[in-house]
Design goal:
The structure holds two protein chains of two kinds. Chain A has one domain: Helix Hairpins, CATH 1.10.287. In chain A, about 75% of the residues lie in helices and about 0% in strands. Chain A is built from three helices and no strands. The longest helix of chain A has about 30 residues. Chain B is mainly α. Chain B folds into three domains: about 70 residues, NADH-ubiquinone/plastoquinone oxidoreductase chain 6, subunit NuoJ (Four Helix Bundle (Hemerythrin (Met), subunit A)), CATH 1.20.120; about 30 residues; about 60 residues, no CATH class. Chain B has seven helices and no strands. Chain B is extended and about 60 Å long. Classes of the chains: A mainly alpha, B mainly alpha. At the A-B interface, helix 1, helix 2 and helix 3 of A face helix 1, helix 2, helix 3, helix 4 and helix 5 of B. Chain A: It is a multi-pass membrane protein.
Chain lengths: ~100, ~170
């Protein structure tokens, strides 16, 4: 019972994260939705490894690496957003239309 | 019952991340989501992961985003005129997710739905934990530094790339 509840919660957070990532005009909101996605994936991995993999804990170990990647990507993403804001003075996603006709 | 009490703010907060008008709110709501994730891990008995998730996700990631958001003047109101453009394809993907839910849920969870009716699916009882149990920290350490030690050392290259990237972006 608990397994299904947690899996449904992680799938729900994953879909909300994808929805927010696709339909957001703001770069910071897109990055926060990406963090939601990574968090949902983490819950999924950790739940499966807790229920089915007591010997090797592959899911739990992999979620440690996913946390490391999420933290690194947050730093790089915020540095990129900062430099874009410094040159363009706005954080809208659809402002890079110079190649359009 | 305690599961739904602890995880129901995550359902609302997750939606508010995507739909909040103020971008500062869309950085504050994931803090609630991470807190709910950590409490779920507490219920599973993974105490080390339940401690690491808030420390990294809230303490490092959300704080970094708060710095970014508060340094810049970000426009408050967004124009949501392009939301319906994504509705056909994303609707199909959403329907596929919703269809997959019926393979997981059984009739005991949500009655009156056409779900599976066996109530003994995915039951798992551990008896060894009642004899002598390892803490989550011991198990992770037993694996991460012995069998998966090469992966652990290779993942340090992530932080090498991070430091290069941040120094090049200035």
């Amino acid at each position: 019972m608990m397994l299904e509840h947690i899996l449904v919660l992680s799938a729900y957070l994953f879909s909300i994260g994808i929805y927010g990532l696709i339909t957001s005009q703001n770069m910071v909101r897109a990055l926060m939705c990406l963090e939601l996605i990574l968090n949902a994936v983490n819950i999924n991995f950790v739940t499966f490894s807790d229920f089915f993999d007591s010997r090797q804990l592959k899911g739990n170990i992999f979620s440690i690496f996913v946390i490391a990647i999420a933290a690194a990507e947050v730093a790089i993403g915020s540095a990129i957003v900062s430099s874009i804001y410094r040159t363009r003075k706005s954080t809208r996603i659809n402002q890079s239309t110079l190649l359009n006709k | 019952m305690i599961l739904s009490v602890l995880s129901s703010p995550a359902l609302v907060s997750g939606l508010m991340v995507a739909r909040a008008k103020n971008p500062v709110h869309s950085v504050l709501f994931p803090i609630l989501v991470f807190r709910d994730t950590s409490s779920l891990l507490l219920l599973l008995g993974l105490y080390f992961s339940a401690m690491i998730f808030p420390v990294v996700h809230i303490g490092a990631i959300a704080v970094s985003f708060l710095f970014v958001v508060m340094m810049f003047y970000i426009q408050i109101a967004e124009i949501h005129e392009e939301v319906l453009r994504y509705l056909p394809v994303s609707g199909i993907i959403g329907l596929i997710f919703w269809w997959e839910m019926f393979f997981i849920l059984d009739n005991e969870t949500i009655p009156l739905l056409p779900t599976q009716r066996n109530t003994t699916s995915l039951r798992y009882t551990v008896y060894a934990v009642k004899v002598r149990s390892w803490t989550n920290l011991e198990t992770l350490g037993n694996l991460l530094y012995t069998y998966y030690s090469v992966w652990f050392l290779v993942s340090s290259t992530i932080f090498k790339a991070l430091s290069w990237g941040v120094s090049l972006l200035k």
